[in-house]
TrEMBL record:
Record's keyword terms, sorted: Hydrolase
InterPro entries, per database record: 4-hydroxybenzoyl-CoA_TE, HotDog_dom_sf
One Pfam family in the UniProt entry: 4HBT_2
One annotated GO molecular function: fatty acyl-CoA hydrolase activity
Protein family (similarity comment): Belongs to the 4-hydroxybenzoyl-CoA thioesterase family.
CDD domains (alphabetical): 4HBT (cd00586)
Name the UniProt record assigns to this protein: 4-hydroxybenzoyl-CoA thioesterase
Organism: Vibrio galatheae
Keyword Hydrolase: yes
């Protein structure tokens, strides 16, 4: 039996870094990289109609429980960057892998990942497996490559 095609859930955004994100030396402050990750993650989750508003409506919040970042090259302010996000785990937690590239040269400037877990809002209990609503949306994406 032929396996269905699996479309990886991923997204890409391009932006120009802002002056207010830079430190006094004119490079992007390291903590702001997470804002760039978040924008790519937001676009990715919107593809399956499970952004923060949909998460809230489904009765779950998804706090960050772990992060890792490797800073490869400093990013200056007023610099065009491309951020990719790819969902690599979803059964028990969300793991999203990120890469920030120089938008002009394609050079990798940073890579990292975040991990989030579902917490049922009514009970405030952490779930040890992702809720069915997320699993269904990811499975549908993998089967079809879109939410239509």
């Amino acid at each position: 039996m032929e396996q269905p095609t699996r479309f990886p859930l991923e997204a890409e955004v391009t932006l120009v870094t802002s002056f207010q994100d830079a430190d006094p030396m004119g490079v992007i402050y390291h903590g702001n990289y997470f804002r760039y990750f978040e924008e790519a993650r937001r676009v990715m989750m919107d593809k399956i109609d499970y952004g923060y508003l949909a998460m809230n409506a489904s009765g779950y919040m998804w706090p960050i429980i772990g992060t890792q970042v490797k800073y490869v090259k400093a990013i200056p302010f007023h610099h065009e960057i491309r951020i990719t996000a790819k969902l690599t785990e979803w059964e028990n937690r969300l793991r999203v892998d990120y890469v920030i590239y120089d938008a002009q040269t394609g050079q990798r400037m940073c890579k990292g990942h975040t991990m989030q877990v579902a917490v049922e809002m009514a009970s405030q209990e952490m779930c040890f497996a992702s809720p069915k609503v997320l699993l269904d949306k990811v499975e549908h994406w993998h089967r079809n490559g879109n939410i239509a």
